[in-house]
Write a structure and sequence with these properties.
- This protein is α/β, with parallel strands linked by helices.
- The chain has helices spanning about 40-50, 70, 90-100, 105-115, 130-140, 160-170, 185-190, 210-215, 220-230; strands spanning about 5-15, 15-25, 30-35, 55-60, 65, 75-80, 145-150, 180-185, 195-200, 205-210.
- Strand 7 (about 145-150), helix 6 and strand 8 (about 180-185) form a beta-alpha-beta unit.
- Helix 5 (about 130-140) runs parallel beside helix 6.
- The N and C termini lie far apart (about 35 Å).
Length: about 230
């Protein structure tokens, strides 16, 4: 049984399709890049998987269940915008996660924050943008989830912070889980990925392993991405 499966998934905004007939199957133990330029439908797909949006047609199942209460318990979702109250101190945010998520590992979160030298008594809004991104990623990766869905986790931070974020993803997810990372920065993330999915104008144009792309097209994933999307 696939961990994540989308069947004939379509999402319309009025008459305009944001997603068109998406069919995907993702197994456990994979890090997958969900790739496409801004406006391609990546965030729409992610929000449907996270239970924030509902499809116009088709369905997504996660761990064998349709998206809903059961899947939210096994999905750890990082949105592309700030999702914590900015006036809270980091410690209070940890308290909230510990109370709200039964699978939240506070010790793991504190250890990661300690390695980053982030003051847990600091108010979130006083932190730099890059540090805020790191705190939010630490929160998401400290859950013992089956599926981690990360929307543009490296899009707004400097290269050094990107390296740490990718290292955090690799070293803290359960090997029996999978991670979907939405991005258009393929070169920064290619060596982290097992598989890639390309979405263009709401349509799925590729789902393959990284090695498969290199063998079939004789190019890196980043080079092939630039060809498909004419970057």
């Amino acid at each position: 049984m696939a961990l994540f499966e989308a069947k004939n998934l379509t999402k319309l905004y009025g008459k305009k399709p944001a997603l068109k007939d998406i069919n995907l199957s993702i197994e456990s133990g994979k890090i997958i890049g969900l790739c496409g330029p801004n406006g391609s439908g990546k965030t729409t797909l992610i929000k449907i998987a996270a239970g924030i949006l509902t499809p116009s047609e088709g369905e997504i199942t996660i761990d064998g269940n349709p998206v809903g209460f059961q899947t939210k318990a096994v999905v750890s979702y990082l949105p592309d915008k700030t999702y914590v109250p900015v006036t809270w101190k980091v410690n209070k945010i940890l308290d909230f996660f510990q109370e709200f998520y039964l699978d939240f590992d506070r010790i793991a979160a504190m250890n990661m924050l300690g390695r980053l030298q982030i003051d847990q008594n600091a108010q979130f809004k006083t932190l730099s943008k890059g540090t805020q991104e790191k705190v939010q990623l630490v929160l998401v990766m400290s859950r013992k989830a089956k599926l981690y869905i990360l929307d543009e986790p490296i899009g707004g931070v400097d290269p050094a912070a990107r390296d740490y974020i990718l290292e955090t993803i690799i070293s803290n997810y359960n090997p029996e889980s999978s991670v979907i990372i939405s991005t258009h920065l393929i070169a920064d993330i290619e060596n982290t990925l097992d598989e890639v999915i390309f979405i263009k104008y709401g349509e799925q144009v590729l789902h393959d392993t990284v090695d498969g792309v290199r063998e079939k097209y004789g190019k890196s994933v980043d080079e092939y991405f630039r060809e498909v999307f004419r970057c």
